[in-house]
Amino acid sequence: VYYKRDPQTFFRHLSPTQQQELLQKLKHDYREIVLGYFINDVAIDQRLNDFVNAAFLTDVSAAQVVEIHMELIDEFSKQLKLEGRSEEILLDYRLTLIDVIAHLCEMYRRSATGEM
Amino acid sequence: VYYKRDPQTFFRHLSPTQQQELLQKLKHDYREIVLGYFINDVAIDQRLNDFVNAAFLTDVSAAQVVEIHMELIDEFSKQLKLEGRSEEILLDYRLTLIDVIAHLCEMYRRSATGEM
Question: Scanning A33, A102, B70, B110, which has the fewest C-beta atoms within 10 Å of its C-beta?
Answer without folding.
Answer: B70
